[in-house]
Amino acid sequence: MNWHGVAESVESSRKLLEALWNMDADAVATGIEKAHEEISILQYNDENSLSCTIQLAFYFAREYYTMIREMPAGKGFADICMLPRKKHSDKPAVVIELKWNKSAVGAIEQIKEKQYGDALKEYQGKLLLVGINYNKMTKKHECVIETMQK
After folding, report:
1. Which 8-state DSSP code applies to residue 40?
2. Alpha-carbon gap, residue 87 to 23, rounded angstroms
3. Residue 46, pLDDT score
4. What is the DSSP pairing of strand 126-135 with strand 93-100?
5. Dist. CA 97–CA 82, nearest whole Å
6. Domain encompassing residue 106
7. Is the pTM of this model over 0.85?
8. Which residues of 22-36 are buried (b: 16+ CB within 10 A; e: fewer)?
9. What is the DSSP letter of 92?
10. CATH classification at residue 133
11. Under a CB-based contact definition with an 8 Å cutoff, are residues 104 and 143 in contact?
């Protein structure tokens, strides 16, 4: 049995997670685009499709995080929250907001305005705020990453 393709996908996911930790927004956008190209989604046309791609792209993150989709947060629902597992409490928590044909900056603004970080009441430490947008015209993903302390 040849696991070559699986090993490559896991390694790409590991690199994507490291890019996130390093706040390398361009590398995160590129990694998500690569995952999108590998996924056969007939209709990649909404935030749910994008969310599924993000979940798969960050598959390796499950080693370090509990991943929660549509987490009740502040004044709405955070698209994806990544909460560090107890044995990896040194890692930052992550709140990801997804946009479709809008802007990654707008996604960050929404995280702040709707106080999505408040959902992580028990968490103390570094928090990464991640805005990801998919532009249907250009077929490109963009990413903005900011940090805050809780």
Report:
1. -
2. 22
3. 67
4. parallel
5. 12
6. 4-149
7. yes
8. ebbbebbbbbbbbbb
9. P
10. 3.40.1350
11. yes
Neighbours of 139 (CB within 10 A): 11
Identify the burial level of 119 via C-beta atoms within 10 angstroms of its C-beta, where 0-12 means exposed, 13-18 middle and 19 or more buried.
Answer: buried
Contact at 8 Å (CB) between 132 and 78?
A: no
**Domain count of the fold of the chain:** 1
Q: Report H helices in the chain.
A: 4-21, 25-38, 47-57, 104-113
Percent of the chain with pLDDT over 90: 56
Segment 28-44 shows an average pLDDT of 79
CA–CA dist 128, 92 (Å, integer): 6
Place of tokens 């805050």: 148
Give the number of other CB atoms < 10 A from CB of residue 67: 18
Instruction: Calculate mean pLDDT across residues 121-129.
Output: 87
Gap between the Cα atoms of 9 and 57, Å rounded: 8
Q: Which of 63, 60, 54, 64 is nearest to 31 (CA)?
A: 54
Pairing of strands 93-100, 65-73: unpaired
